[in-house]
Design goal:
The complex is a heterodimer of chains A (167) and B (406). With 167 residues, chain A is an alpha/beta fold. Chain A is 17% helix and 26% strand. Chain B has 406 residues and is α+β, with helices and mostly antiparallel strands. Chain B has 16 helices and 8 strands. Chain B is globular. The chains are: A alpha/beta (167), B alpha+beta (406).
Chain lengths: 167, 406
């Protein structure tokens, strides 16, 4: 979609390409704030969404890291959009928060933390947002099973919630 | 600039501005005015709001996780259910994303049918909004009038897709079925009658002194704030920003329709109401044009790898049987890559970010929910208003909690 030429601090870009018509660039995770700041200065003032993709056991290509952070930014004047990716690894995976550059990132980062366990450094309130506060695990990781939860108030739940010696 | 200002976090017992103490009140999660299960922690100074902290997640159904466990064509059914007031628009975002990845173009008749269903949905979504918001602010009869017309739309949904609410009508590769002659007849009647009904709603609300005093000047959101906070849809247009994805990034042939983007410079609850009324009139205009130019032809792509063969072919062609079997056991696979497609729903930018790893199930599907982002602007709008005005503000923000929590 992007029709512009060289976009922003070129030295930050590791890789760039176009996927199904959407322009994207990859940056080092440590440079994510610098990259998004320069995009914002360039006119991309709206963060459309921020999310994560878990590439565990993804054979479609060679991935630089397991977790891919995706930031979609848009310039509402020229209608250009660009997607910024950063690959992180580790347990927990860490990346800098951008909530002060783009206010909508506040809840998006909480959601990504909640569902993927990605820790955003310097986020003011990194707590679970969609799942209950006492939930164990991060459901959108690929190694988290579907349908594994116990239904509350069921027989099974009673067994699960009882200490092992009484069960 | 608004992005640097924070909101002071206060506590029960701290001194207020009027000689009293601050009081922290829990609003919801089960409250008739929150349109679902939304919990708000509100700090009150007397009756004035000093802090609002929305707590969400009560309606989280793991839709994005389910999408990863379903095959590409099965996922359509799940997309219906996150923003439950606009299922065909959710379908459209998902279908367009999958089609972009596969490099498929749908036939013209399917495109026009998609536009018709999108606009009908926009109307029904705005009708629910107007009915319930009217009810909350004391215009009790609005609900009856709005749901009367909404029922006609649901009847049309039933006629064209077999379902009244969760239609799953728009799918990757086209639409579920062609419009029946009866559907077109119903649509014709609806387009004829609807402008009169919108006049009726306006007679009830636009100059109604109670409605005006409860919405004018309430919940101000300046254009800068709206842009910075990422608000979309009537929230953004109600703040005077001319931004509509149907015009800005046209999809499904919206560029060939003649309609105006509804905006209002009032920047308050009343402005957002005016925007929605105007949008309903424009939706009827688009429906009229779509019905007039509805071309003949197929409503699905002619690709046996993506859509099942017609029933009668199964009896004569072995190849058709094989395609049918493959499609309903394994499904089709989508080339690796990722794509983001955004469509304009009744609430704003309804996007779908799809990642494929080349298998028959998606690697990741992310729904960019308009309500989720719009709800973050609630605090900015509600600050220093009376607690009763918050009802009007939540109402005109039009957050669907299924969409917020997904």
């Amino acid at each position: 979609m992007s029709s512009r030429g060289p976009l922003f601090a070129e030295n930050l870009v590791v890789e760039r390409g176009i996927s199904a018509g959407d322009a994207w660039v990859t940056v080092e995770p440590g440079n994510i704030r610098a990259a998004l700041q320069s995009l914002k200065d360039d006119g991309y003032r709206l963060l459309v969404f921020l999310t994560c993709v878990d590439h565990l056991a993804d054979a479609s290509r060679k991935w630089p890291g397991r977790y891919e952070l995706v930031y979609q930014v848009r310039d509402m004047e020229s209608k250009d959009t660009i997607r910024v990716r950063a690959f992180v690894d580790g347990d927990p995976p860490r990346i800098d928060s951008v909530h002060d550059l783009f206010p909508p990132a506040n809840w998006d980062e909480r959601e990504t933390y909640d569902l993927f366990g990605v820790v955003f450094s310097d986020h003011p309130e990194l707590t679970r947002i969609l799942m209950p506060d006492d939930w164990v695990g991060h459901p959108l990781r690929r190694d988290y099973p579907v349908g594994g939860e116990v239904v509350e108030f069921s027989e099974e739940h009673k067994i699960w919630q009882t200490a092992p010696e009484d069960a | 600039m608004s992005e640097t200002e924070g909101v002071t976090i206060t506590k029960t017992g701290a001194p207020g501005a009027f000689g009293g103490e601050l009081l922290t009140v829990n609003f919801g999660p089960h409250h008739p005015s929150t349109h679902g299960v939304l919990r708000l922690i509100v700090d009150l100074d007397g009756e004035q709001i000093r802090r609002v902290k929305p707590v969400i997640g009560y309606l989280h159904t793991g839709i994005e996780k389910q999408m990863e466990a379903l095959r590409w064509q099965q996922g359509v059914v799940v997309t219906d259910r996150h923003d439950y007031l606009s299922p065909p628009i959710n379908n459209l975002a998902y279908a367009l994303a999958v089609e972009r990845l596969m490099g498929v173009d749908v036939p013209p008749r399917a495109q026009v049918l998609r536009v018709i269903m999108s606009e009908l949905t926009r109307l029904s979504s705005h009708l629910v909004w107007m009915g319930t918001s009217g009810l909350e602010l004391g215009a009790m009869s609005m609900l009856m009038y709005c749901f009367r017309e909404r029922d006609t739309i649901l009847d049309m949904n039933e006629e064209i897709s077999g379902f009244r609410m969760h239609t799953s009508y728009i799918r990757p590769g086209g639409v579920y079925a062609d419009a029946t002659p009866r559907f077109l007849e119903m649509l014709e009647g609806f387009i004829y009658a609807m402008p009169g009904h919108i006049d009726e709603y306006e007679n009830l609300l636009t100059m109604n002194p109670i409605w005006r005093s409860r919405t004018i000047g309430i919940g101000r959101l300046s254009p800068d704030d709206a842009k910075v906070l990422g608000a979309t849809g009537p929230m953004l247009r109600g703040s005077g920003v001319d931004w509509d994805l149907r015009k800005a990034v046209p999809y499904s042939g919206y560029e060939s329709y003649d309609f105006e983007v509804a905006t209002s410079d009032d920047c308050d609850c009343y402005g957002r109401y005016l925007v929605r009324i105007k949008e309903m009139r424009e939706a009827v205009k688009i429906l009229r044009q779509a019905l007039d130019k509805l071309p003949d032809g197929p409503v699905n792509v002619d690709d046996r790898k993506m859509l099942p063969p017609p029933r009668e072919e199964l009896e004569t062609s072995m190849e058709a049987v094989i395609h049918h079997f493959k499609l309903f056991t394994e499904g089709y696979s989508v080339p690796p890559g990722d794509v983001y497609v955004a469509v304009e729903s009744g609430r704003g930018e309804n996007g779908c970010y799809v990642v494929s790893d080349g298998t028959h199930k998606p690697r990741r599907v992310k729904f960019r929910a308009a309500s989720f982002v719009n709800l973050q602007a609630l605090e900015r709008m509600a600050l220093n208003h009376m607690v009763a005005d918050m009802i009007a503000i939540i109402g005109t923000a039009d957050a669907v909690l299924g969409d917020v929590d997904r």
